[in-house]
Amino acid sequence: MKRRNTQSKTEILEILKSSSNSALSHEMLQEKLNSNIDRATIYRVLNRFCDDGWVHRIVGDDGKQYFALCLNCGEKKEEHNHNHFHFRCLQCGTVECLENEIDIALPKGYMAKSFNGLISGYCINCS
User: Fold this and answer.
1) Residue 89: in which H helix or E strand, if any?
2) CB 100 within 8 Å of CB 84
3) Exposure letters 4-15 (e unless 16+ CB within 10 A, then b)
4) Does the pTM of the predicted model rise above 0.85?
5) 114 dihedral zone (left: phi>0; alpha: psi -120 to 50; beta)
6) Mean pLDDT, consecutive 10-residue segments, the chain of 127 residues?
7) Which end of the chain is more exposed for a tag (fewer CB within 10 A), N or C?
């Protein structure tokens, strides 16, 4: 399904692209936006990006949702996965995707579809 490209979507996508490997919360995005995009629009755009496979959602140990641009996902929807850990720095608040993919050995009869893991501690700049 082709989606309409709006100024809000373009601005939010550009901010996510410029954040390199870091994930951003709704509040972080709102601070970086130069325009007056309301909270509901930001959430709607982020949820649409998740549904379309452009970004993935990370639920932090602080209860916030963070959004990161998908970098290593396949072009096809069925290849879209995020089976890697995320790291949240307790000092600076940075949330980033860790590149190492993981493979979890589940008990017989279980089949994993996706994994969302978070490690919290101190990043290389704060430790």
Assistant:
1) strand 84-89
2) yes
3) eeeebbebbbeb
4) no
5) beta
6) 76 90 90 85 93 87 89 54 81 87 84 81 93
7) N
